[in-house]
Structures are given as C-alpha cells and as structure tokens.
Amino acid sequence: MVVKSKGARLTALVLAICCADGLPARAQYPVAPDVVVFCEPTLQHAMTDIAALWRSESGVKARIFTAPTTALLLAQIAHHARDDVIIGEGDANADAAKTQQLIKPDSLHPLGRNSLVVAALSGSAAAADGGDSLATIAGKEPITLVDPWAATAGADSKQALQSLGLWEKVTAKSIGVVGTADAAFLLSQSKARLAIVYATDVAANPGFTIVERLPTSSYPPVVYWVAEATHALSPNAAKFIAFLTSAAAQDRLRADGVEVSP
User: Fold this and answer.
1) What is the DSSP string of 84-112?
2) What is the pTM of this model?
C-alpha cells in the first residue's frame, strides 16, 4: 500500500476537481493592461507627457523606459525584456528590428523628427534680441556639445558645423560631453554660454531658449518610428500606438519639440 502525504493528497484532490469540472488544472494569469514603452532618451520628456495624456483619456498606465536604439534598446528586446511598444530612431534600426523579428512589421510607421539647435539660458545676453550668434561666440566663450565619437548627436553636430565653416572655431573653446542631456545640464548650470542640443532638450528645460537652428540639410535627418513589439503582452499596445496619431497627442509632441509626421 502506498501512503500519500497530506500535501500529495491535497494536490490530487485539486486536480481531480479541476478535471471533473472541465477546468484547466493550470492557473490562468491575467495580463496587466499597462503598456510598457521603450524609447530613445531624447524622447523621454515628450513620452512622459504623452503617457500622462493617454492615462487621463484611457485610464491605463504607460510605463516609459529609455535606451539608445542602436546600443541598448534593440539588444534588450532581443534578450526578451518585457516591452509592448518600441519608439526607435533611424530607418536602419527599423530595418534591423524587422530583420530580427523584434517588431510586428504591419504596426511600423513614422512618428516624427528631431532637430539640432543652439540653446541659451533664457534672459541671458546670448538669448536677447540681437544677442551674440554662434558664429560670434565661437572660440571666445565656452560652448558645450556632444563629442562626435560619443553619440549620433555629436557626429551630426560636427557635420553641421563643418558645413557652416565653424567646427574649428567652436571646438577651440568647447566642452565635450557624451549626450545632449549632459550638454543641457552644463548650460543650466551656466558652465557654458551656448549648448548644441536637440529641440526636445529645449522643450524639456523651460529655462532654455533656441537662439539658432542648425540647417537640417547639413546633417542626416533624425527620424523616429513606432511599432508594436513582436512579443507584446499588453492588450492595449496597438491602442497606444493609435493614440499617438490623435490630435491631442500630436499637439503634445509638437509642444515637446518633435516635428510630427503627417
């Protein structure tokens, strides 16, 4: 005679009840309605605002996480990090995401564009009407910008400044950083007279003013795309992507420095 323990008898009883009632023996776990969004760091402020707007209209949370598309974002998703919506930068990265089957191809569409600008502290001499331009300050006052080796923003800034004939003058008295967020911080602390950052960085810092825009023809377009992750879990992922095309969301993106796609 085989003697079963109390725990074994209880397990057998539960299985017997489930089978007798035609119910699955395995528990059915509900999927959280929250939408997990991975996006470029340059879009953190804009997407945080969008998440708040989305929740006010839908009652559903959108959780925003940031990582550079090329270096980290796609790699994290490839290693099965939980994600429902991806907002990446660059057509090459969109193609890579499709090739690696990280996104649902039919859900992919353009979101908008960013631009490189020259920012100053609001109320400073550089920001005043008739204030000093990048050309007049270059080489005389400290200007902070991203190093070309550190990120796309740096390589693009170098290309734009070279086209304007200002690269040598600017770098003669510049402060190199690894990202536009660092450039914005140094400007906010008055460590530099001007900063070359993205339009979204200026929108995220109320104390900044755009004094110049680098010609968009002088560097590759900074474009963003959005897609649903292949292994999305939230039942609201597609709805969140659709919300991004609403008038309210588009207005919010524009206010946060993104030139939205038509």
Assistant:
1) SEEEEE-HHHHHHHHHTT-B-GGG-EEEE
2) 0.82
